[in-house]
Amino acid sequence: MKKLMALAFAATVVLAGCGNGTTTDSSASSATSSQATTEEKVLRVGATGQSYPNAYREGEELVGFDVEVIETVAENLGYTVEWTLSDFSGVMGQLETDKIDTVANFVAKTAEREEKFLFSDTYAYAGATIVTHTDNADINTLEDLKGKTVSGVLGSNNVRNLQNFDTNGEITIRTYETRDGAMSDVVAKRVDGYVNSKASLIAEIEKNSLPLKFVGEPFVYEDIAFPFTKTARGEELQSEINAEIAELREDGTLKELSEKYFSQEDITVKAGE
């Protein structure tokens, strides 16, 4: 993984880093970024840097499943990766305004997002589910969450899926800017549950020995892919990256990376296949 060389904090852009030896501040002009992308084959990628085990920091390094997938793809295509870190809503906003080329942060492919963005082929699958503190003996099924408060990350599809699932509005959803905040509150019993993808929760619970248990099975499964702008540049990247995803799936690299980060679970195929 490549070291993050610069920290730049602002209202929406919390950090800009580097990949493969280059450093670019996310406040640089779009003209400069476009020129660098064309001449140096730079792939501008966004992530939160706080999403374990997808895209997170270990010391000065950005690591994770999605990080390794996109960096492997980029290396095979001859691109240098330039990382920009922000909260999830922030990186999606930067993609929409063409400040970055894609987002490598377990982005679910949805009908709503497909109206705005192009998407790569699927490289992983996510089952949205809820966990609660192990002390909550009265919360064991999704029905038990009626009248309870569940935390989630602001702008995430897990929160949106929970809103769609809870058609009668019987669950109070409290949103946070980061996963850490949302998870800390369920561990501290300040909320009754926390919604995220099952694979990410398994990895987080195992890594930190968290006193959390699953509340039933996932209530929805989604395709995970890389988003791009609906531009000529986006179409070119979509085509190039799709070819690489197919290669990584064929040679077993995707499965290997999944098992590395998700406690030997292969999330690159649908559950039951």
UniProtKB/TrEMBL annotation:
Residues 1-16 form the signal peptide. The keyword S-adenosyl-L-methionine does not apply. Keywords: Signal. It is found in: Cell envelope. Gene3D superfamilies: Periplasmic binding protein-like II. SUPFAM superfamilies: Periplasmic binding protein-like II. Pfam families: SBP_bac_3. GO terms for cellular component: cell envelope. It comes from the Bacteria. Residues 42-265 form the Solute-binding protein family 3/N-terminal domain. InterPro entries: SBP_3_CS (IPR018313), Solute-binding_3/MltF_N (IPR001638). Belongs to the bacterial solute-binding protein 3 family. This is Amino-acid transport system substrate-binding protein. The lineage of its organism: Bacteria, Bacillati, Bacillota, Bacilli, Lactobacillales.
